[in-house]
Amino acid sequence: xxxxxxxxxxxxxxxxxxxxxxxxxxxxxxxxxxxxxxxxxxxxxxxxxxxxxxxxxxxxxxxxxxxxxxxxxxxxxxxxxxxxxxxxxxxxxxxxxxxxxxxxxxxxxxxxxxxxxxxxxxxxxxxxxxxxxxxxxxxxxxxxxxxxxxxxxxxxxxxxxxxxxxxxxxxxxxxxxxxxxxxxxx
Length: 186
Known about the structure:
Blueprint: E1 3-7, H1 16-26, E2 34-38, H2 47-62, E3 68-71, H3 77-83, E4 86-89, H4 94-102, H5 107-111, E5 116-120, H6 122-127, E6 128-133, E7 138-141, E8 146-152, H7 158-164, E9 172-176, E10 181-185
Parallel strand pairs: 1-5, 2-3, 2-4, 4-5, 6-8, 8-9
Antiparallel strand pairs: 1-10, 6-7
């Protein structure tokens, strides 16, 4: 069974919810486990800064210094996913992320074998069946790994709910404000 953690966005803000989020991702991983940091929603020149932020957040908020961190590379991505104990998909540009992940047809099945998979904002959208992008102002089709409809950065806007309700209502609707997260076991 995989633990999916969907986060509403803005993981760089120091607060209790973000501290809990980072700790939750790694709390059940064995000593020496690898956490794969996926930044495909961002420009490659940002990767080093993002890596430093995330390693700092994971280490500080989990109290663990025994983890190995790996940054996703397009050339070896599937091998990296296979070796990782947890996969963290950071936010950014959702369409860019989804289109990049679609280039790896094995990703959807391999990800289901992981212990923990977390996605923040665009990362949550990619894991979902449908998502409404606050930046694009439209509903996107994610990879459908988790059969849900998701909206990150939710601010109470009823029109977003109405838009997502145009899509299959048998799928759970997840509305996540900044910093909030939810756990789905599947």
